[in-house]
Amino acid sequence: MRPSVTDEELPNKSPLFHSSTFEGNCRRSSHASLGAVRPGGTPAPSRPPHSPEAGGSGRWALAMLGVTALWGWTYVVVQDAIVLISVPAFLAYRFLGAAAVVGLLQAREMSRMTAGEVRGGAVAGGVLFAGYALQTAGLEHTTVSNAAFITGLAVILTPLLAALVLRTSPRPRQRAGAVLALIGLSLLTLTGLSVNRGDILMLGCALSFTVQNVILARVGPGTHTGLLTFVQLTVVGLSGLLWTVATGPLTAPATQSVWLALAVTAIPGSALAFFIKTKAFTTSSPGRIALIMAMEPVFAGICGYWLSGDTFTGLNFGGAALIMCAILLAETGKRPGPDT
User: What's the predicted TM-score (pTM) here?
Assistant: First the structure.
């Protein structure tokens, strides 16, 4: 359930959001890991210019589809787990575990971590913690399907917030998608004239993920993707640990099902998923991957129906469909720039 942002989701009037900048950052990470000089002083061969659709882009796009399906399933996994473990403890175990995995994979790069990566990762991680805290707590009070579709609103809200921050105008499709999503959200969540508490928490989660996306777009260029990810995961995990200590003792998970939920969400659902997502964005066009990730609410809705017994009224189904249409409307269509 990891939020994402691409250069195409944001107004491209600023060089910070240009795809070539993003791809250059990712190539920097790979080049730093391999080293620019072979043992013995022989210069390493230079890498050819990267084409977004070259090489194994299809394989990584398919892997990203698998990650998106996994994230959809984890809504059910987390909802079942937090019946047996507190929300802050679950966040602490999940994200400290994920940070440990990423830290091991990036061990050779740790000495090169810059102050900018620490500051940027800490700010983005703090907002990310707020999003996951609201999302995990919201799952105690709403259905898996509602949680996923409302969280998916971050796809639409991100370019709108970026336009506000940068004082630019969002594209017509983004404005239309926002209106359509608002109507869909009303149909999905309103019961008479009242709104479910869990749905309100999920809306706060979507807003938090939106802010985090924009922060990453500002601090991401020029930073090491793996190190920035490590700092964010560490901040989320430590924040969950402090929250746990402040509200009660930290106890070890008592059941096998909770351990399984933590293992699934920490390793494939966080550490591995971040690696696949980064690789997918560097081997395929950002618009293509963003469209794949927009399928997360669909997978979550299917899992919620089959595994959690979620039920849909006609209005609920219509609202979910409108939100999905709004996401597709905002994320498809002709875009300016080389990644169209």
Answer: 0.72
